[in-house]
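Query form — protein Selenocysteine lyase

QUESTION: What is the three-dimensional structure of this chain?
INPUT:
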Amino acid sequence: MHEAFGEQFQIQPGYLNTASTGVPPLRVGRRVASAVEDWYTAAHPNASFDAEVDAARAAFATLVGADPDRVAIGSAVSSLIGMVAAGVPDGTRVLTAAEEFGSVVRPFAVHADRGVTITEVDLEALPERVADHDLVTVSVTQSRDGRTVDLAALRAAAERTGARVLLDVSQAAGWQPLSLGWADWLVGVSHKWLLSTNGACWLACSERGLAEARPSAASWYAADDRWNNLYGASAALHPGARGLDTSPIWHAHLGAAEALPWLVSLDLASVRAHCVGLADLLLERLDLAPRDSAIVALDLPDGAGSLAEQGIAASVRSGRVRLSFHLYNTEEDVDRVVRALRS
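ANSWER: The structure tokens for Selenocysteine lyase are given below.
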């Protein structure tokens, strides 16, 4: 058992794979497990968690600096971004980072038949290329190597040109402070740095972004007065962001309702300092330059093999070993990696 930032975690030393799957606080895991038991023992087999969906929705908005009344919920990044992509005009010119995570850009790519085009550029060059495009879609922190887009430069470029901006915060929210209400759309998932069950996702919209997204999924959960409008074609969708809601995976949002308000209560500047401090300490001990990110990507001859033999959990992305540090990691994890590599 390990305690960090006021919560207990049942986690083994050497777990450095939060960028794939975060480990929830023990309290969060037990709450979800209890609800699952209620289901399979038929204690509450048809339980819904509307209050928890809304609590997680509000907490996500706080974490990213958005308006909670303009947050839609769903279960996958690609499906929520798909509603943004469905609403862009024919011929929209989309800008993204080279080797961006597929779910962030492919929902636009499938509209090529409408003349939607995709331009991929180096992440560092992205702000200077905004002027030639109508919409930018990019992860705040890149999944494959932990690099972060220059948000100030991107915002300035978008404000000069009027370009729309969609930011994926899936690899950023939860370990660093964010204030991104200026973006048109913000999307993020529950099961990485937000330490919740897989299956919850959010789309925060600006006023302009909400007006331009298209509710192409038109879920029953998006209906105005949803529980009294379950049937038929004529039920009106909610006039706000909830009109973009898709059917929730109940237990995922239940877990998020436990984890996200706790994350909101933390000093995220301290969380960031902890995570980045450990990542940069590892780089220093490997005689590499600091990268100011909680994610480290290393070129290792045998991939993650030597690390796995020493009980270290990591991922391989684009041929590089990806290590990710969160609030439950310690200097002991850094030491384990260094020993494994030197052995």
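ADDITIONAL NOTE: The domain at 2-26+267-342 is CATH 3.90.1150.10 (Aspartate Aminotransferase, domain 1).
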